[in-house]
Amino acid sequence: MSADLLTKLAGLEDRVRAAIGERESADPAFADPRRALYLTPADVRRVLDTPVEPVPRSRPAEEPGGRLGTLAKRFGLDEVEVDFLLVAVAPEVDARFEALYGYLNDDITRRRPTIGLALRLCGLDQAGPGRFRVRPLIADGLLEVVDPSAPALSRILRVPDRVVAHLLGDDSPDPGLDVRTAVGNPSPFAERLRSAVAAGPVHIRDTTGEAHRVAVEALGTAVVVPPTKLTEAVVVAAVREARLRDGGVVVGPWDSPPEGLRALLEHDVPLVFHSGLHWDAGWSPRTVLSLPFSPSSSANPWAEAITAATGEPADAEVVAAVGAYRVSHNQVARIASVAARHAALDGRPLGVPHIQAGVRATNGSGLRRLARLITPAVTWDDLVLPEATRAQLVELAQRAWLRDRVLGDWGMRPGGGRGRGVVALFAGESGTGKTMSAEVVAADLGMDLYVVDLATVVDKYLGETEKNLERIFTEAERVQGVLLFDEADAVFGKRSKISDARDRYANLESAYLLSRLESFGGVAVLTTNLRSNVDDAFTRRLDVVAEFTLPDAAQRTALWDRCLGTAMPRADDIDLAGCARRFELAGGSIRACAISAAYAAAADDRPVAMADLVAAVRQEYRKLGRLVDGDEFDPA
Questions:
Q1: Range of 456's domain?
Q2: Cβ atoms within 10 A of the Cβ of 578, count?
Q3: What CA–CA distances, in Å, run from 161 to 89, 189, 534, 595?
Q4: What is the CATH classification number for the domain harbouring 557?
Q5: CA distances from residue 541 to 425, 477, 505 in whole angstroms, order as listed
Q6: 212, 384, 393, 456: least surrounded by Cβ within 10 Å?
Q7: Segments of the chain scoring below 50 in pLDDT
Q8: Domain assignment present for 370
Q9: Do 52 and 141 fall into the same domain?
Q10: Nearest Cα residue to 200 out of 110, 138, 291, 125
């Protein structure tokens, strides 16, 4: 034990010794060995004659009418109920009442009031209806019964610590409660919501993740409770905290109604629920108003969040570059915070790459379990495509950037439950650059690419394929990414005439996909080797259809040059233009040939030569099952 702690304990011992001496001088019977087992009438009179300790001047000023009066007003307590609460709280704030209640209870160990004693002190008949006036106080969390199994009149009443602290001027909430206070002026929707909540509980249909923020704006002060934590004890604590602060309770979002929903609706406190579901009247005996969430389209939280994170005005270019992201206000703040830290590490002002890094850092991991994640490492300069195909890719990126303005502000996709998703079809032979193009589009949007493995999607059991796809679509809408369905005709194929039960269920699967593409809110790319394999009904729902053709000689020359790169040494005899003229290969095959030639050169520790390229092409031809002509493969 340290010397410092021993010194402090010695000082405490001196204070205890002094307190005992003071007690002995003030109480002649203090030395009686049975002193702690009883109180005499003289003891009680001496307690009553002891003056109350003065209130410290540092205590915060009371509200008009006092905190007890304000509490009574917020909880709707009448005079009798206030008296009950006052009787119960007395020993919590004045130690003299412990001895007095022990004397009145005829039991020195029972130093809190019983229900019978509270009735007597409030002037109520113990056998009359007044004994039930304590029930509302218990239901509201202002009183607790310590021993509910005892006879009714002998049950001890206790005031929870949170209520005592509030009456003494401490507004710290109970541990575990999330209390939020609105900052700034409420939005127009929050103003409407405030009027609606004043008349009763409100449910907000929301899929953006913004509803909880707007609910706090409408309530001013709110206790936010996750649905999974809505137990009976949490309901009582949350409702009590909301009333103590003259606020409300916000619960959500949920996939199914929480267990404590009905218990919460029994309390008369401002309530706001939010979820992506439509409100079911069977969830509650009370009438709940359900409203669709309609955020202000003109609000742009990015500039404010970037300024708050960096302390500098947001760059207009950065604010303009976030149009492709569909994130909530809370996500915006987190993204800006992460981006600011990346900028600080780089020692540069916050720019678009830092925002993109922040977006990737805040993506959830749910979709990674269902699809293969690719962090884009290519740009537009790496693409070698016909101008028409490249223009279609640019259009796809522009649709993702501008969809909120066109589909939202300008209202170009009204009704029908349609989402704001962007869906494209890349059609062309294998190796023509479909997957790489999707990666470039994802890089341009500052997003990751998620490639769906159809082996994990298609299931032989009826209905399971649809469930797997629904999980993928749902998770894709929760992240900032581009969803790629490679070889999409496996699940987006043509519907057929119904000749047996298998055809009927296959058509049901296609019907589900048609409906789900309509409501999808993300960016998706479907690839196929043969466009005619895709159902025409899917084509109508596509925003962009890009045709990928085999490259011509000039494009093949550029592909050979890109695939060989700039770091690998090349021999003087390499003729890329001649190689492109002689061998008609797709971009994927050219890449494979370049890698094979590089391995052959590295094995001999020399620059890559024309012979290496020709040998690699010969090997690729055989792999593709194509005819190998000896004269064609003459290195000269």
A1: 380-548
A2: 13
A3: 10, 37, 66, 72
A4: 1.10.8.60
A5: 10, 18, 22
A6: 456
A7: 1-2, 55-64, 297-298, 500-501
A8: no
A9: yes
A10: 291
